[in-house]
Amino acid sequence: MVIIDSDVLLLAFAYHRDERQTDNAAFLTQVQNANPATTVYNLMEVLAQLSFNLSPARLAEWESWLIEPYHLTVIWPRAKENQTAEAFFRAEIFEHPFTKAREHRVAFLDALVIGLAERTPDVESLVTWNARHFKDKTTLRVQTPSEYLAM
User: Fold this and answer.
1) 3-state SS of the chain: helix, strand, coil percent to 5?
2) Alpha-carbon distance 3 to 36, whole Å?
3) For residues 96 and 116, what is the distance between their CA atoms, to the nearest angstrom?
């Protein structure tokens, strides 16, 4: 499974003059055969960013223009068996990201994404245009879309 970071998805819908558009589009086409996914944290970042430019009605249709065309699976955190909601929330929103931040000096949202991706079975890599933010901070293979295409 390949986790797609927010910046890759945002580039598909905004920043149309960005020089990375060709590689970005090629990656999003090619990765459809590799069980692509994104975390709920990435999804919320993308939707929040796009909320400035999309009508509320269009934003509400996000699955039809974001999930379905790219064959994305949204990865959600899962509570442990018999874990209370309070314990789950504390671990997911505070303990896991704070541990990552202490160990690797990583931003909060990046720590949420890395933590959830690392705990999800079958995730092999994270594809992001900000590879330098993630390299040596995760057990996952980290690549840019261009690097993924060159494999």
Assistant:
1) 60, 10, 30
2) 6
3) 9
- For 107, the token pair is 């931003």
Rg (CA), the chain: 16
Model's pTM, two decimal places? 0.92
Tokens of 138: 């995760």
Question: What pLDDT score was predicted for residue 16?
Answer: 87
The dihedral of CA 31, 34, 38, 43: what is its sign?
A: positive
The Cα 44–Cα 50 span in angstroms is 10
User: ∠109-46-68 over CA atoms, to 5°?
Assistant: 125
Architecture per CATH, 2-150 = 3-Layer(aba) Sandwich (3.40)
Q: Mean pLDDT of all residues in the chain? A: 95
Judge contact between 140 and 126, C-beta under 8 A: yes
Residues in the chain: 151
Strand partners, 126: 3, 142
